[in-house]
Amino acid sequence: MKKFSLSLFLKNKPWLHSKEWWKSPKVIVGTLTVFLFLGSGGYYLASSSSAAYLVINGEQVGIVVNEKSGQDLIQSVLEEKGASLGVIAKTHDKIVFEPARINKDEFQPVTEEEIQAKLSTYIEAGAITIADQPTFVLPTLEEAQKLLQSYQDSFNKPSDSNQITEVSFEENVGTQIVEVSPDKVLTPEQVLEKLKQGNIQKIEYTVQSNDSWWLIARKNNMLTMEVLAANPGTTLDTKIKLGQKINLEKVTPYLTVVSTGTRTDQETLPFDVVSKTDSSLSSGQTKIAQAGSDGQKDVTYTYVQKNDKIVSKSIVDEKVTKEPVDQVVAKGPQKTVYVASASRGSGRVSGLGWPLNSHINSYYGYRSGSMHTGIDLAGHLGDPFVAAASGKVVSAGWGGSYGNMIVIDHGNGVSTRYAHSSKLLVSVGESVTKGQTIGLVGSTGNSTGPHLHFEVMINGDTVNPLNNL
Ligand SMILES: [Zn+2]
């Protein structure tokens, strides 16, 4: 080659016939150029090597030693992405490797982090669908199916006394495979937690006239404590104003498990309290002549249950396993002064209504060692209460530990008492009709807070109002 190029020089350049042709400046420059070219080329080949560009969706992401090492990097990114879910992630991205030459000294291979930033990954996960909408995504279809099963099981404890006939979902529930980004996938524990919590919606409620915490709870099908909990810093005593905005957190279940079955429960038969006159006792004195004891019965019923609440129940069998024993209270001969003028009779009660639309704070019967002669109905200071039935007011005024109280005689030996009132709206001798407002709730007499103490008396002796309402 060198010889050939020299002969070309010889042929075309007459000055080459001179014996000193090599001293020509053109020859020297040309020759040096040839040597320089060969020298740098050799250096280039020695200090560089072949590599590959990693190209994701048409974009050069970086350089890898070769296609094999690039594939390994991609694979470990996919494994990493699915690791917490126990699966390997996948990608729909177009990945190609293009030939590259790299300078060995400056070679910086692409990192897993750089690939992660550019590569979109997905996993084939198992979704729980509600009304055909994928709602919760689990790592696999099997896990989605298993979760639905264990959610159903969580509400049902089959046993000898609880035979379950059928379990189903009220909603249209299914499972399906979905392609999702790994960070959208939940663990079975997380899904179970969400299902148990339900769908929490925050809503604002505007206080209406006559509202109380209790009434707001009742209107919204919630418990009073749930309403208070949604309004931090409030208690039952916190006053609310008309038009005031308060928070309610309404929880609707995502899924409703409907179970039907037959169950047998043991129920307590509470003992009755009866009184007898004992002339050896002085007026107003009482003593327990016979201690009462509760009885027991087995009640078998079929039921329909939605999640953890029984929504319908029908009794198929009742068996008393232990009879209750009456509590007999001996009393001094004189009747209490407050009902002295009440009628006497058969004691047949019918159509007694609730004097206050409220819940019971304390029941009739022996409470921490002493007899509670009525029921305590929760109320706020000033709440109006009404006559339980038509009748004649036989007492209206101060009654010692009863505070301001009213006794209404309904005839036939039946009378009712309303105690601890803040204000009495009727007076002795007045005729009242059922449902007529007769006083306002208060906390007078022996009382720890505003409530209505309500008694039903038959021929002067108190009976359990709940047996007569
Ligand atoms: Zn009471």
Describe what this molecule looks like in 3D.
The strands form 8 sheets. Strands 16, 19, 21, 22, 23, 25, 27 and 28 form an 8-stranded antiparallel β-sheet that branches. It contains 8 helices and 28 strands. The N and C termini lie far apart (124 Å). Mean pLDDT is 85; it is low at 1-18 and 335-340. The longest helix has 23 residues, at 25-47. With 469 residues, it is α+β, with helices and mostly antiparallel strands. Strand 27 (451-458) and strand 28 (461-463) form a beta hairpin. Helix content is 20%, strand content 39%. The protein is elongated, with a radius of gyration of 45 Å. The structure holds zinc ion. The site of zinc ion (ZN) has 5 residues, from loops.
List keywords for this structure.
single chain; 469 residues; alpha+beta; Membrane-bound Lytic Murein Transglycosylase D, Chain A; 5 domains; 8 helices; 28 strands; 20% helix; elongated; disordered N terminus; binds zinc ion
Give the gist of this structure.
With 469 residues, this protein is α+β, with helices and mostly antiparallel strands.
The CATH superfamily of the largest domain is: Glucose Permease (Domain IIA)
**If classified by CATH, what would the architecture of the largest domain be?**
Distorted Sandwich
What is the share of helical residues?
Answer: 10-25%
Work out the oligomeric state of the chains in this entry: single chain
Taking the alpha carbons of the first and last residues, their distance comes to 124 Å
CATH topology of the largest domain: Glucose Permease (Domain IIA)
Biggest β-sheet strands, sense, barrel:
8 strands, antiparallel
Give the DSSP E fraction (strand runs of 2 or more residues): 35-45%
User: Overall 3D geometry?
Assistant: elongated
Continuous helix count: 8
State the name of the first-level CATH class of the largest domain: Mainly Beta
Bound molecules: zinc ion
Structural class: alpha+beta
